[in-house]
Design goal:
With 370 residues, the protein is of the alpha/beta class. 29% of the residues lie in helices and 21% in strands. The longest helix is centred in the N-terminal third of the chain and has 15 residues.
Length: 370
């Protein structure tokens, strides 16, 4: 069935509404809803916070009690048909008796996954699927990845000099980017469930990894630290009351080190595997199982290289400062194996350039996941 221009237009409005839930609704998806009668919007809403009313319920409420019989409902994700923290949205829609429900995409959540569409259609409502489907899938790519691949959406961030250095040969990296760029990094952190670094970065930089000022989400501070070397005098441990600290360790980590971190209040995840790649695969699955949807990785070079080599990175923020460090021994952002031929290099897609005073940010997506 062809998708009408009006369907595209109203669905794009619903997508704009859905975006307003970013950072507030996870691990739920962002969803927007628009109700139309005689080509006029008479109700609209979005999922505003985790555990709160869904988009369809908010849109119906915004109509102010007017009769909605025969209307068309536009919703960016298939209406839920199960009892969770809220009743099924399909029940709410059936009560208003719409003539049509236009759905951007099917919900990958196993308890829905076509059931909402079928439930509405079985009651005589015309259901159309696919209007702005690609845009809807992009909006909720992290939610989709969690349910289809059992892993969180991995966002890589680094700041580098114009000549591609993450730090000097001595490990010095403060500060490459300017204040405006660093403020943007804090904004991104505030939308994520976790901020991850490697043990080497903690030893060199002793980062705090909190979000300043706080954002919608409080990200767990995560250290990929196979041998449990995190120091009890690190800023991460000393500030553990502000936000949790999670440490991914290998089965071979010494017991006294594990006991020390456990006593300090760290959440330890012992990751089986014969190498870093296997342990990371397991660890990402554990993060998803704990409800983490978006994880920001801030370095260092070896951790980013591991994730790049194993095609775990989904999104990139590369901050480029107008500074030149030089040095053949200086550190580049992505370590690991890399590729032998330039034709094998991964090109980011849907890229955009943003300016933060003197620092430029190249933002884009890989095609590793979706």
């Amino acid at each position: 069935m062809a998708i009408a221009d009006d369907d595209q237009r109203f669905m794009r409005r619903a997508l704009d509404l859905a975006e307003q839930g970013r950072g507030f609704v996870e691990p739920n998806p962002m969803v927007g809803c628009v109700i139309v009668q005689d080509s006029q919007i008479i109700g609209e809403g979005f999922h505003e916070k985790f555990g709160g009313p869904h988009a369809e319920v908010n849109a119906i409420a915004s109509a102010g009690g007017a009769s909605l019989e025969g209307c068309t409902v536009y919703v960016t994700l298939e209406p839920c048909c199960h009892h969770g923290k809220t009743p099924p949205c399909t029940d709410a829609l059936l009560r208003i008796k719409p003539a049509r429900v236009v759905v951007a995409m099917q919900d990958p959540f196993p308890k829905v996954q076509g059931g909402g569409i079928q439930g509405l259609a079985s009651r005589g409502i015309q259901v159309c699927v696919g209007a702005c489907g690609e845009e809807a899938a992009r909006l909720n790519a992290p939610f989709i990845k969690v349910h289809e691949k059992g892993k969180p959406w991995v966002i890589a961030k680094w700041a580098m000099t114009l000549d591609g250095k993450l730090a000097t040969a001595s490990g010095s990296s403060k500060w490459i980017s300017g204040e405006a760029a660093r403020a943007e990094v804090h904004r991104i952190r505030g939308l994520c469930d976790g901020v991850m670094v490697g043990s080497g970065t903690v030893k060199l930089d002793d980062p705090l990894l909190t979000t300043r000022p706080p954002g919608p989400r409080t990200a767990a501070r995560i250290v990929f630290d196979s041998q449990a070397t995190l120091s009890p005098t690190s800023q991460l441990i000393e500030s553990i009351g502000e936000s949790p600290v999670m440490v991914a360790v290998a089965e071979s980590a010494r017991s006294e080190r594990l006991e020390r971190l456990d006593h300090a209040g760290c959440d330890l995840i012992v990751c089986p595997g014969s190498d870093h790649a296997e342990r990371m695969e397991y660890f990402l699955g554990q993060l998803a199982s704990r409800g983490m949807t978006n994880v920001l990785v801030e370095g260092g070079s070896q951790l980013l290289g591991l994730l790049w080599d194993t095609q775990q990175i989904d999104e990139v923020y590369a901050f480029i400062a107008p500074k030149i460090a030089g040095g053949s021994e200086a550190i580049s952002p992505i370590g690991g194996r890399g590729v032998l031929n330039m034709e094998e290099a991964t090109s980011l897609v849907r890229t955009d350039l943003r300016s933060y005073q003197e620092t430029i940010c190249l933002h884009g997506f890989t095609d590793f996941s979706l």
